[in-house]
Amino acid sequence: MTSDTIADPRTPLAPRRKGLNLEKWGWAYMRVSGVLLVVLIFGHLFVNLVMGEGVRQIDFAFVVGKYATPFWQWWDVLMLWLGLIHGTNGMRTIVNDYVTHNGTRRVLIWALWIVAGLLILLGTLVVFTFDPCIPPVPSSLAGICPA
């Protein structure tokens, strides 16, 4: 059989590789995280830009008020984690498609995941260790922060 002919439909399939299929799970992750990100991002935009006074309300005190509740902390962390992993997985797909040298591809993919991991770690630390009362305290928070 030459490469330009179609195999007989009754031809047995090639044996499948055993083990974890990372490409399949990456594909599924992209679909699920994409839907979740749409909900999270539009919720974020609605609360920040539509409710209340719109964009005029966003200042340091607004962020302090949002991060005072665990709900908004977890909302932003989930958006951060899903977005970074989604974007990194997309970049990994691009690297796999266009980089032909195995060594270069491996280095680039490792670099992508290391950078994503560091950004996830730093972003999570910022959200959960956010302290608005570090001097100098803005005058809008004078009543909240102890003197």
From TrEMBL:
Annotated localization: Membrane
Record-linked Pfam families: Sdh_cyt (PF01127)
Transmembrane segments: 26-51, 71-95, 107-130
Lineage, broadest ranks: Bacteria, Bacillati, Actinomycetota, Actinomycetes, Micrococcales
SUPFAM superfamilies on file: Fumarate reductase respiratory complex transmembrane subunits (SSF81343)
Main location: membrane
Protein name: Succinate dehydrogenase hydrophobic membrane anchor subunit
Keywords carried by this UniProt record: Heme, Iron, Membrane, Metal-binding, Transmembrane, Transmembrane helix
Domain of life: Bacteria
